[in-house]
Amino acid sequence: MGIFEEIEQDHANKEFTQLGLSPIYSAPVTARIIIIGQAPGLRVQNSGISWDDASGDRLRAWLGVTKDLFYNSGMIGIIPMDFYYPGKSKSGDLPPRKGIADKWHPRLLKEMPDVKLIVLVGSYSQKYYLHLKSQDKITDVIKNYRDYLPNYFPIVHPSPRNNIWLKKNEWFEQEVVPNLQKVVSGILSE
Fold first, then answer.
1. 163 or 93, which is more confident?
2. Alpha carbon distance 139, 130 (integer Å)
3. Which contiguous run of DSSP H or E holds residue 125?
4. Which of 38, 79, 106, 114 has the fewest C-beta atoms lying within 10 Å of its C-beta?
């Protein structure tokens, strides 16, 4: 049995499996870059394709990659903090369920031995992988992205909900995104 089937059969995912839903992730053995975000949105859960929405379009633009390269090259892995849409809250989607990343990420990462960079998209993955404290501000983490290189590159979530943040923090698209594209391009052309 492979990891995909094990995730499906995990008791924690029983309700999703019973609904006929599959875990959403991509872990090609040839991956050089991994994108770790929060959890699939409802549209992505229904399509079965990670980042198949407006956020994904913006993410690919920030990375400087085409849709074809993103999905079909085998160079990019996509592992969310939770493999299933967690549901709706008052102000957006519920957070990823606790314990999912602890249980499955180490095994999935081990399957991709050539990874050179993990792009941490949004606060959930950044808090988990960078071991941030509650008082650490995500804006500061992103501003100081160089502190986490060469292993990690933290970025804001590309959701349209973050348009206000992007307007207030123009330095992100002016300075951080070009450097992200340079790092990504360098890794993909090795």
1. 163
2. 14
3. helix 123-129
4. 106
Q: If you average pLDDT over residues 33-46, what whole number do you get?
A: 92
Q: Could you read off the pLDDT of 65-121 as tens digits, one per residue? A: 999 999 999 999 999 999 999 988 887 788 999 999 999 999 999 999 999 999 999
CA distance 172 to 129: 21
> Among 144, 163, 170, which residue's Cα sits nearest to residue 155?
144
Q: Are strands 88-89 and 117-121 parallel, antiparallel or unpaired?
A: unpaired
Classify each residue of 38-64 as buried b or exposed e, where b means 16 or more C-beta atoms within 10 Å of its C-beta. bbbbeebbeeebbbbbebbebbbebbb
CB atoms within 10 A of CB 22: 15
Structure tokens at 190: 């090795």
Q: What is the mean pLDDT of the chain?
A: 95
Rounded to an integer, what distance in angstroms lies between the CA atom of residue 127 and that of residue 178?
24
Averaged pLDDT, 28-34: 98
Handedness of CA 60, 132, 182, 116 (dihedral sign): negative
